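Sample 1 of the test manifest.
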Amino acid sequence: MTALSNFDLRQIRLIKKKLLLFESKKIDLFELIKELNAILNALENISESWKSDFQSKINLLELIHDSIEDGSISRWKGNFKDDLDKTASGLKQMVSILLDEYLKMPDSRITEIAIEGDSKWLICPHCNDAWESVSSDAMVICPKCEHVCQNPRSKLKK
Ligand SMILES: [Zn+2]
């Protein structure tokens, strides 16, 4: 796995944000599909296989959306609401896994180090927010400002 470019990292976070907005019903399905397609097309260095998996999930959302629009959803095999939720959470999971993989290995461009509060807490050097973390990955993301920094508790540390 290659390091994510800053641009891709921003897009990945944006995908997560859009999915959360959809979950909390702040954007509708049409809006979600439109946004996800645009973000996916903008990604720079993400593997083609990841992108095509992601695209096929968006396509399923699109199919559900179109079936709702033209009324054919009544003939949907199974429960379309379940399929919708499952697909949306599948997309969220793909993004989480991608981010988790990225955080495992040190990225030489990341120079700031999170500050250790106590044995459980880390403090973001960027926004000063503290969060509970038990991660031993090379890097951590501040849940508040989403700044990526080195993890002082990294098991890879020399
Ligand atoms: Zn922060």
